[in-house]
Write a structure and sequence with these properties.
- By secondary structure, the protein is an alpha+beta fold.
- The chain folds into two domains: about 1-50, no CATH class; about 60-230, Glutaredoxin (3-Layer(aba) Sandwich).
- Helix content is about 40%, strand content about 20%.
- The protein is built from eight helices and ten strands.
- The termini are far apart.
- The relative contact order is 0.16.
């Protein structure tokens, strides 16, 4: 029997290219799974470009020229504030306050802890300004800072004479401060703002935020955003 007859009897020959490579068969078999995985991979890679990054809060004021004294008796001025090249969160209290001041200080303490957890302690500083400078001397403020557990590495407590405090709070931050009012025998309260002010490293006021959880969360995100925008993100 001839070779051609033998081949015809055995059926048609399989050409070498008729059988696809193994990886092609794998792709065909798992095409939907591969497609889904590829889709999620692309979404993950594109996410940084799809996130909307809000601008830093608008400038609504400017910290005026001032000269106050901190809890250590050291002078602190606008020039010192700018030279430190930091973002500031400013609150207003007085140490004998019988009403809202403890809540303000607790909120600032919580904010300081959040800043520490975020590794931003070297770029954000807290400032507490008394609205009762006659009572709140540097020594009194130092004792108050210790009492509430403030970390003085990035938290400063300021006092000064009455005119300097009013110029800083009322003229600079545009916040009202009332006269002392006796609420019970021997107990005086001073009406003042409970808001925390955000100040950028150029001494510009960027906003006022409440001391509840929602306000503190917004303050934190606005603080971080202000830092990133200033660093040219």
């Amino acid at each position: 029997m001839s070779a051609s007859e033998s081949s015809a009897g055995a059926g048609p020959l399989q050409e070498p290219w008729a059988e696809p490579p193994g990886y092609i068969k794998f792709l065909r078999k798992h095409i939907w799974v591969i497609g889904i995985l590829f889709f999620f991979l692309m979404i993950t890679l594109m996410r940084p470009f799809l996130i909307r990054r809000p601008p830093a809060p608008e400038v609504i004021g400017e910290v005026p020229a001032f000269s106050l004294v901190d809890q250590s008796g050291e002078s602190f001025t606008r020039e010192d504030l700018l030279a430190a090249d930091k973002t500031y969160v400013v609150g207003f209290v007085f140490t004998s306050c019988p009403s809202i001041c403890p809540a303000i200080s607790r909120a600032m303490l919580m904010f300081q802890e959040q800043i520490e957890r975020s590794k931003l302690s070297d770029r954000v500083e807290l400032i507490t300004v008394t609205v009762d400078p006659e009572t709140d001397t540097p020594e009194v403020l130092a004792a108050y800072a210790e009492k509430i557990g403030a970390d003085l590495d990035n938290w400063r407590f300021l006092t000064g004479d009455q005119a300097a405090i009013e110029g800083f709070v009322v003229d600079g931050f545009k916040l009202a401060v009332g006269d002392p009012e006796e609420t019970s025998p021997g107990v005086y309260d001073i009406a003042h703002s409970t808001k925390l002010a955000l100040v950028d490293r150029f001494g510009q006021i960027r906003g006022y935020y409440s001391i509840d959880d929602e306000g503190l969360a917004e303050l934190y995100h606005r603080t971080v955003r202000t830092i990133r925008v200033e660093e040219g993100e």
